[in-house]
């Protein structure tokens, strides 16, 4: 029931949104940016969190030139109840720090609190390291006690579009109930291709094809408004 802020689809979207606030950032030490998204699916770390159904999502972030930032996000999702899937919502609150060590290397830390309409809240800590177009991140959820490691690589394609190659791996993930031939597995991997294409007027088309070891493949496309 969570989006991943750094090193996933939202990371590239947040970068696009930040570019729209570049002029403001040059004039002021504080810049505000955000995205509003209508997506055909809510994919989180290779899994669908909306039963392969549409999801509305939004994110707003305030950044300071020092590298500190805070933000909040909203998503709709669905989860399996006793007899049927139940529609619910998620509100996330996050803050962190990001800095460039040099022209090629960036280092970041992030804390995100996930809150849900019907389910328990959780807090996740992220440490990220970027080298040019490649991002590495280690995520630890203090409530589920699970680790998630990921690597993402961005490729500039045509007409300002971008393709992101993603690979992730869960450790100590018994909480998520991944089963391998009837036995509970504490690890799981996922792979994804994510694509974004600028349509103009601050709109982007986005698409994703994801595969998760135990939930198989999921697909998403959608429209993003950057502000």
Task: Explain what this protein looks like in three dimensions.
The protein has 227 residues and is mainly beta. The protein contains two helices and 16 strands. It has helices at residues 9-20, 22-27; strands at 30-39, 43-44, 47-48, 55-64, 68-80, 85-100, 105-116, 122-131, 134-141, 147-156, 162-171, 179-180, 183-184, 188-200, 203-212, 216-226. The longest helix has 12 residues, at 9-20. The radius of gyration is 17 Å and the shape is globular.
Label the overall shape. Answer: globular
Number of strands: 16
How far apart the termini lie comes to 25 Å
Structural category is mainly beta
Radius of gyration: 17 Å
Q: Sketch the topology as an H/E string, one letter per element.
A: HHEEEEEEEEEEEEEEEE
Tell me the helix content: under 10%
List keywords for this structure.
227 residues; mainly beta; twelve-stranded antiparallel β-barrel; two-stranded antiparallel sheet; 2 helices
Quick overview of this protein structure:
The protein has 227 residues and is mainly beta. The chain is built from 2 helices and 16 strands.
Task: Tell me the layout of helices and strands.
Elements lengths: L8 H12 L1 H6 L2 E10 L3 E2 L2 E2 L6 E10 L3 E13 L4 E16 L4 E12 L5 E10 L2 E8 L5 E10 L5 E10 L7 E2 L2 E2 L3 E13 L2 E10 L3 E11 L1
Antiparallel strand pairs: 1-4, 1-16, 2-3, 4-5, 5-6, 6-7, 7-8, 8-9, 9-10, 10-11, 11-14, 12-13, 14-15, 15-16
